[in-house]
């Protein structure tokens, strides 16, 4: 079975500072990992994904994520946070060879203070 | 531009009534999914489909049904609405490969009184 954990309900960071949103996963085989962002009263928007290859994945709006197989983690990062980055972030996993539906974490609310 | 739409965006109904939420995508994707979003639970999978005439149950499928008669549409039916089904419902679609990202609709907020 596949599962995802986002250990922080909320992350607070000052504008201009680097941000990290944590995600750990559990799968039996190789993982496909995704990050999505949700703004208020909107659907989820795709940010980036890891399939294979380079452990550092770059995505939309200056976000990147680092895949760490030994720690089974896929943390979302950004070098310099913007107030407009404030939103709800979801990590998701799909196991290679498994069903095509995603398993989502419970979400982390990012609050960027001016 | 291709898109995925949901209707209605908001719905209030009474316990015991049958409710159908529509989902329509113009991406020509084979895979379609229904999730519900509740505080503290993230998104949980209700039903999904890999193509026409194919449907599968997710983790929280009790009380819900879907049918897939064409590529574009995957309506979600609540057979007899219960207060526990008050939630925000999201439809999503993706191309067939397991590594492809899903595209989400704007959501339907359903309240069951």
Helical content of chain A (DSSP H or I, runs of 4+): under 10%
What is the string of SSEs of chain A from the N terminus onward?
EEEEEEEEEEEE
Work out the radius of gyration of chain A: 13 Å
Radius of gyration of chain B from CA coordinates: 13 Å
How would you sum up the major sheet of chain B? 7 strands, mixed
Order of helices and strands of chain B: EEEEEEEEEEE
DSSP strand (E) fraction of chain B?
over 45%
Q: How many beta-strand runs of chain B?
A: 11
Give the helix level of chain B as a range of percent: under 10%
**Contiguous uncertain segments of 5+ residues of chain B:** none
Point out poorly predicted stretches of chain A: none
What's the total helix number of chain A? 0
The assigned structural class of chain B equals mainly beta
- The average pLDDT score of chain B comes to 94
Annotation field: number of helices of chain B: 0
From the structure provided, what is the oligomeric state, counting identical versus distinct chains?
Answer: heterodimer
Q: Give the largest chain-chain interface (CB within 8 Å).
A: A-B, 26 and 26 residues
Structural class of chain A: mainly beta
Mean pLDDT of chain A: 93
Write the layout of secondary structure elements.
The complex is a heterodimer of chains A (114) and B (113).
Chain A: E1 3-5, E2 10-14, E3 19-21, E4 24-26, E5 31-38, E6 44-50, E7 56-58, E8 64-68, E9 73-78, E10 87-95, E11 103-104, E12 108-113
Parallel strand pairs in A: 2-12
Antiparallel strand pairs in A: 1-4, 3-9, 5-6, 5-10, 7-8, 8-9, 10-11, 10-12
Chain B: E1 4-7, E2 10-13, E3 19-25, E4 31-38, E5 42-51, E6 54-57, E7 64-66, E8 76-78, E9 87-94, E10 103-104, E11 108-112
Parallel strand pairs in B: 2-11
Antiparallel strand pairs in B: 1-3, 3-8, 4-5, 4-9, 5-6, 7-8, 9-10, 9-11
């Amino acid at each position: 079975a596949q599962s995802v954990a986002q250990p922080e309900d909320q992350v607070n960071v000052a504008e201009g500072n680097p941000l990290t949103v944590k995600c750990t996963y559990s799968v039996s085989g190789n993982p496909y990992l995704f990050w999505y962002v949700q703004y208020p009263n909107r659907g989820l928007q795709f940010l980036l994904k890891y399939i294979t290859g380079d452990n550092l994945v770059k995505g939309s709006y200056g976000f990147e994520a680092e895949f760490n197989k030994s720690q089974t983690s896929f943390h979302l990062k950004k070098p310099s946070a913007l107030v407009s980055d404030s939103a709800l972030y979801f990590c998701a996993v799909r196991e290679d060879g498994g069903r095509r539906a995603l398993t989502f974490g419970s979400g982390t609310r990012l609050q960027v203070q001016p | 531009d291709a898109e995925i739409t949901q209707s209605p965006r908001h719905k209030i109904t009474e316990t015991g009534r049958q409710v159908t939420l529509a989902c329509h995508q113009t991406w020509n994707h084979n895979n379609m999914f229904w999730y519900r979003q509740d505080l503290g639970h993230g998104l949980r999978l209700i039903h999904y489909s890999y193509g026409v005439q194919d449907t599968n149950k997710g983790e929280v499928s009790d009380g819900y049904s879907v049918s897939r008669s064409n590529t574009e549409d995957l309506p979600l039916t609540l057979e007899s609405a219960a207060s526990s089904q008050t939630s925000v419902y999201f439809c999503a679609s993706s191309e067939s490969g397991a590594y492809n990202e899903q595209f989400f609709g704007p959501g339907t907020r359903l309240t069951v009184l």
